[in-house]
Amino acid sequence: MQLEQSVRSVLANALEGRPPSKPECAALLRLAPDSFEAAVLKATADVVSRRRFGNKGILLAQIGLETAPCPGIANSAPLGKITRPLSLRNFPSTKSSRGPVPSRRVRTSMPSSS
Questions:
Q1: N or C end of the chain, less CB within 10 A?
Q2: Where are the chain's structural domains?
Q3: Nearest CA to 49 among 6, 12, 15?
Q4: For residues 105 and 83, is the Cβ–Cβ distance under 8 A?
């Protein structure tokens, strides 16, 4: 396979340390991503980068945290979706002259502060 002369010229200049011009960059961006020219461009960029940085690189990473309520299947998850019903009828402070306080769903444990 033969490279187009314009692509060959840009890559030869890059190997000699000369950056491409804006029109040359625009032409390279128009290459089909799965073309032979794009593959040679990527290989040339790899060689230039390894030469320039002494075959060393920097690893940049990001950690994403996804938060959502725990399904609470174990019935002990403090932030679970499912909580156990807690009857307030057995607590002395819940009795009033109007009768017992109805039962409601409340969390039975608090998240740890650590």
A1: C
A2: 5-52, 65-108
A3: 15
A4: yes
